[in-house]
Amino acid sequence: MMVKNQMKNKGIVWGKIWYGFFILYFLNMLVVTTIVLLMNPLWYDINEFLIGMIGVRFNWLAIILTLIFLNFAHSLFLVIFHTIKLAKSGHTKTSIINKILPFIFLAVWDFALNLLISEAGSEIFIVRTQLEYLSPIIWLILIIGISSISPLLYRKFARQLLRVKNEGTKSWKKAGFVFGTIVIAVICIFPFISPFFLVPSTVVQGEIPPKPLLMAHRGASHLAPENTMAAAEQAVIFGAVGIEVDLTISYDGIIVLMHDSTLRRTTDVGTVFPDRFNEPITSFNYSELQQLDAGSWFVDCDPFNTISEGYISKTTAESYRGEKIPTLAEIINFTRDNYLLLDIDSKGPPSGHPYYSSYENILLTQLNNSGLGKNILIGSSQALSLNMTYVTNAFPVDQLISMGSELVNTHHGLTNEQFKSYDLAGIEVMVWTVDSVSRFSQLWCLGVDLIKTNNLHLMGPLTKPFWSMKVIYYEVSWILIIILTPTLSFSIYLLVKKKVKK
Questions:
Q1: By C-alpha distance, which of 452, 229, 226 is closest to 327?
Q2: What percent of the chain clears pLDDT 90, i.e. is strictly above it?
């Protein structure tokens, strides 16, 4: 009998240990799932990374997302199931499968998450900015949740306090009780004070700044094949004030538009030149590049669902077939004819290329002779570019002024304080690459001047930030929520308690 009781007690202890592990498993999967969801604007790029790694064009991310959500559901089920078992009988046990699977899932998804974060680079800041954007909803949920359980916490606290008093003056028990009370109090108080210290960037002092001007990243690259004349035309149609282009040079010295180092993603090079599928674009002569179709891939894949969702008609999409890789001369003429800004992202040829040493001089000479002047945005301070707009990276205000910077070109992941310092100093800022309406709204409220985006069709129609609030209304709203929510919760608790006594 004694052995049976010992085994039973041991089983109860291990059941509670496994229950604690399942809670950790659930929290881990919650973090993984949340980060992946917040990185929604990067899903296409993530899938392209997976395609490049695996070597087969397929929607691999859809499979991964499905598996992540299934694992999250599994972890949630384990917590709920064992919570109910513990509440009913005071003990629980789990199957051998559920003792093994969580360890496998944790290893796989934590490794995948670390790989994703390392490959995402500066784009991982989208997680922080999305959390900031959603923070009012998060704080509200936590405040309602804590207020709802606060009567129960208070009752438990009163019982524990009475127990500590009745058990004498054991200092370690008192210390443990005090420490536990402080920890729980801090956890509970945090959501109530956080809205006043972690104020979202969409809460503004005074009037909302003017809407940022739109720069079409690689042309309107979600509406037409990137870095083509069709993309430039769609940029004008959807209201961009300028276009950003990626430049490189052919083997025979013609500067052309192309982002990738190879042609395999955005052309039919595998069909036209099957033996040169993985060769760099800089190894092709211009006449060879002109044999390629740089538009059909976009029509066939509809990579951003802009055709299926009706932003681009099927007739317009079909016209993209046969689109050619344009030259710098063509885009200069288009920019001039449509009074656009031209943002230059130059990728020179590798060493050993015939034009390796002369590439920059060829580029600057062609730009200088274009007559576009200040409408060219370029990160060069050489003599040939003195009549163009000098673009620099993000540096402290004093350093930018001493450098003679005319425009800061930076990733959108800078802190709110950095953006505000530039706005107060009157320094114009252009950020890249913003594809979510939420981040666009934040940067709008922070006073950013120009925003590079692939999603002109989403940003263009906006007449105001998706949500914004004056600081006085924000603070008053939170004061009312913080007063009313706990008051309502305790009122309901006292009312129910009074009815139970009757």
A1: 229
A2: 66
CATH superfamily of 213-289+324-459: Phosphatidylinositol (PI) phosphodiesterase (3.20.20.190)
Q: Which ranges constitute the DSSP H helices of 250-394?
A: 269-272, 286-289, 296-301, 314-318, 328-337, 359-368
Q: What local confidence, expressed as pLDDT, does residue 316 receive?
A: 97
Q: How far is the C-alpha of 342 from the C-alpha of 216, rounded, in Å? A: 10
Rounded Cα–Cα distance for residues 327 and 129 (Å): 37
- Please state whether beta strands 376-378 and 203-204 pair in parallel, antiparallel, or not at all (unpaired): unpaired
Residues in the chain: 502
For residue 114, what pLDDT is reported? Answer: 85
Q: What is the residue type of 349?
A: P
Helix (H, G, I), strand (E, B) or coil at 389: strand
Query: What is the band of 463 on the pLDDT scale with cuts at 50, 70, 90?
Result: very high
The larger pLDDT score, comparing residue 122 to residue 233, is at 233
What CA–CA distances, in Å, run from 208 to 263, 443, 444, 446, 470?
43, 11, 8, 9, 9
Whole-angstrom Cα distance, residue 423 to residue 206? 14
For the chain, the structural domain boundaries read 2-203, 213-289+324-459
Q: What share of residues in the chain are helix, strand, coil (percent, to 5)?
A: 60, 10, 30
Q: What is the C-alpha separation between 198 and 18, in angstroms, rounded?
A: 36
